[in-house]
Structure formats: structure tokens, C-alpha cells
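My main concern about presentation is that the manuscript never shows what a single data entry looks like. An entry of this sort, consisting of the sequence and the corresponding C-alpha cells, reads as follows:
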Amino acid sequence: MNDGNEPSDGLDIRFSHVHLYVDRVYKLRAYKEFEDSLNLFQENYDEMTAGERIDEDEQRGISLDVDVGRQIWQSITEHNMDDNKSVAEEFASHGRDIVKQLIAGFGFRVTGCHVTSHTSTVVVTSKDANGIQIVVSAMKSDDENLDVDEASAALEDNDYHHFAPSNITRFYHAHSNRQGIAVLSFEVGHQCLEGIFLRYSEHHPELVPKEFKNGPVEYGDEARVFEVFAYYSGERGTSSADEGTMLRFIEPITGAANT
């Protein structure tokens, strides 16, 4: 995954989440309304097709009634021009809202959010409490930033480094201004983070961003976090870092909830 630079096998380490940087993240209210619409859609569809219900095992691979589904969805979203308009348009795979795709395509739900003066972030998870967690962040639009006070924004954005706009800017620069997966995150056991920092500092200093040169960042009684670039841009150990993908290691403070 990272050119052989992963931590040693003796560490207490487990996968935590994926962090995406995307073109736009809408307000939490918009996603919760979309979830409500999907829940209502399912209820109405089940009612309209009640006489055609079959065993769940038999249903696998059988197409749903698209015409019935379209009729139901249009009646539910007639007040929302964006969702309603998308029904009649020819499907295009590009330029779509990734968060809505996760909600509609996989049945995931938005279970958390964090908003700074310059960025918006939501957390999307599956039903399983121990299942996948996807963090999605984007820069706010110009309209959303009209009333931002620059001094307070700088302080606020630095509260949690992983929500800082500089991360998104760096990622987009490395990926020709395309959205995508930016960070693979891992949770590590108590007192494991220092060892990871020392190993990278000694063997792969080029992969350590300047903001982590002095060690992991500690967030009060929540967690300690250390981030590195995942790949070299060329020859391993001699070239500069490829700034397109990062690894994030999170060590919860003893007694704190998982971050």
C-alpha cells in the first residue's frame, strides 16, 4: 500500500476510515431531507407492489419496476427541483454528489458533520456500528464564505488540522483538480503512535509533512494524530513525497471514544 513503509507487524493497528476531498458538500439539512425522501420512497414502493412481493432470496437479481419507482419519486420530490429534475434527465456518471450516491446506492446514512469557516465535512456510515466510515470534505463555495472573518477563520480551521483547507488545496493540486480518496486512516493502540512517528522520522523523513515534523498533534482529551504521505514521487528513500495520498494514524486518548 505504501512502498513497504507501513508500521511493523507488532503494532496494535486497525483500519478506521477513508477521507475523501470532493468538489462540494451540501448542508447537513439537505442530506437528511434526502434520506427522509428515500425512506418514504421505500415505504410507498412496498405498498404499491405489495401484491407482487416475493421471497427475499428469490428477489435477488430481479429488476424493480422502474416506471412505478419514477412515479413515486417524482411525487415525493416535486417540491425539490434538483432531485425531481434528475429523474427526467439522462443519467450521467460524472459530476454527481458523492454523498448522495453513498446514501442512495449503498443505503449509508450521514451520522456526523463538522463545519469550519472554510470547509464542510460529513461522516457517512453503514448500518453496522463496526462497519465502514467515510469522511467527506470540501471547500465552501464563495457564497458560503461571504461573511467569513479571516482572523477567526484561521483559528477555527486550525482547531483540527485534518479539516484545514490547505489539505484540500494540496490534494487537488496533486490530482489535477480532481476529487477523490485523499486519506486512509488507521486507529492504533495506546502508546503506539510515538513508535510510528520515530520510524518515519528515521527511515522516511521525506514522507513526513512539515506540520508533523515535531511529532503527533494532540487534541485535548480526544486523540493524538500523526499523518504522513503514503508514496514517494519517484525512487523510494531518495525522491520527494507524492502529495496525492496520505496515511492518518489516530491514537485515542485513554478513555476517549473512537475518533
Notes: Strands lie at 13-21, 109-115, 119-125, 133-139, 180-188, 217-219, 223-232, 241-252. The radius of gyration is 22 Å. Residues 28-48 form the longest helix (21 residues). Confidence is low (pLDDT under 50) at residues 151-155.
